[in-house]
Amino acid sequence: MPPLPPSFTDTLKGLPGYDPEAFSAVHASGERITSVRLQPQKTTGIAGLFPQLDVTPVPWSRYGYYLSSRPSFTFDPQFHAGAYYVQEASSMFLEEAIRQTMDLDEPLKALDLCAAPGGKSTLIQATLHPQSLLVANEVIKSRAALLSDNISRWGADNVVVTNNDPRDFSRIGEYFDLIVADAPCSGSGLFRRDPEAIDEWSYDNVMLCSQRQQRILADALPALKAGGVLIYSTCSYAREEDELIMDWLLENFPLENIPLQLNPGWHIVETLSPQRQAAGYRFYPDQVKGEGFFIACFRKYGEAAPHKKHRGQLSLLPPREVARIQPWLNVSDEHMLMLHQDEVIILTPHMAEELPLLQKNLYIRKAGVKAGQLSAKDLIPDHQLALSTCIAADLPATDLALEDALRYLRKDELQLPDIAKGWTLMRYNGMNLGWAKVLPNRVNNYYPKELRILKAGTPE
Ligand code: SAM
Fewest CB atoms less than 10 Å from the CB: which of 51, 61, 97, 424? Predict the structure, then answer.
């Protein structure tokens, strides 16, 4: 790894917790830390997921674990089943920030404003009350597609993916109980993991990022309810993107800072903004087992406006069709089945209530879980259903050994033992990977083409 340039390290001098020698040494070491966060609705724990590796918990996360080395996730069918999300450990602290600032006994409305590829969204989803509604938004279209795929793989039923500019959210008025703004930043916190980024770093870019962060926050804040919480984070060490943004927020908006309780054993550094003495939290890779990260929490004050109900109509599936779909599903009686063209979409009750307003104001890429396409006598089940928590537990399924699971995920031809004709779930280690249809003389592999494994090779 190239040495850190003085033009960068000079800007860190005097920052709380910055230790020049230890910081340079940890970057020179090139050590790679690998961590994953489990999908609690699909797994019962880490046991058995990585039998070849040592696993240790990430101290500030209920479902986060360090792995003793980096396996090939591409060749792990459990990754494709959405059993876990590969996420940098420091950023998992968002879970602790949410636990300390939100009432998790209540269903809430949350917005993850800068969401792709979806690490924070999947974390927020797993942390909030299960009847909450999460809007995961990404402004860049191609990244919104990636976000959608990752949300589908995660499989939760209570996420809406949108593809909007932050300013579009002001149209819905004060609406969200929680807004997470994991802002685009100059990225110095990831230098150890991504050394090529060192050459791209410049102070001018830090200033550009800082201005963009202000614009994003100013655009999104009208959508936060009075009493609601804003969590701001970056993976930059720059004052201009961290402490100075805290001061700017407090000077320009009706916000108060929310300090968090830290366990001293975590070695997270508290930092105070120069003007308002607002508390934020810095993560240095020489002090925590994770990359560089910054996070701060705020509450909006003022009178909460009454919630406006939007009277939009959803096109619901007729009752006789519902009866046809029901055997495929394991959802509450309150879940709704919406018909969108000829596709059946499963909506949570909270989502069904809010969707008309969201549809009117935002570009929705995905809402809830697509169950499948209705044909005259059948449902053609969708990949989203196979990977979702809405699927019935007793559908026909075939357990595959590793080699066959990888063949399936490559969309190669399958030779299955003599099994019943019709739709069958392809499973690995008890987890659904997708659908296949068994015909009299062959098996059709329904794994989505765009998701198939392209990489050559086999697991080590
Ligand atoms: N939260 C994500 C996660 O945990 O997986 C990472 C988000 S990344 C730090 C910042 C995101 O902001 C990127 O996906 C980027 O495309 C998006 N972005 C870039 N410019 C933006 C803008 N002007 N407004 C909102 N988001 C923007």
Answer: 51
